[in-house]
Amino acid sequence: MVDAGVVVRDLQDMRDEGHLSDALLRKAVRSIKTADDRYDWVGIYLVGEGEELWLHNYVGEPTLHAKIPVGTGICGRAVAQRRNFNVKDVSKDEDYIACSPDTKSELVILIRAGDEIFGEIDIDSDQAAAFNEEDEIAVISIADKLAEQLAAERR
Ligand code: SME
Fold this sequence. Notes:
Layout lengths: L3 H13 L4 H15 L5 E7 L4 E8 L7 E3 L3 H9 L3 E3 L17 E9 L2 E10 L7 H22 L1
Antiparallel strand pairs: 1-2, 1-6, 2-3, 4-5, 5-6
Helix pairs in contact: 1-2, 1-4, 2-4
Bound molecules: methionine sulfoxide (SME).
């Protein structure tokens, strides 16, 4: 599992040094990806103009889905329904859009501050039901730290 305490501290250190969200979003993806073998693909989608998610950065196999309309796929559904998703078996989810034929489960955690949704952290695993509640809690605290920076840049 990813040690959220360490990652959140690293991200705060970067903020203190003056790094902006672009660097923090990349650091978060890399930290999560290297933390656990179950995390086969890790990326961040941001909500763009025009009800569309765009892929900011990722580690893993290249994906065809650099843009996803809000409401489409598990990623777009999370934003449309304003909630996180831990999908244990992607083959049973009718909204699922495949990035890799090997993916069995997927975790989507929103990057949000209050009512505002900035984007999401998306993790795919080649193992079925790879993500437990501890993964969810860890990724939520990383997402919250990213949201803090994104919100600060909006002001
Ligand atoms: N599986 C996602 C698409 C993005 S890829 O996992 C990189 C979805 O269903 O929205």
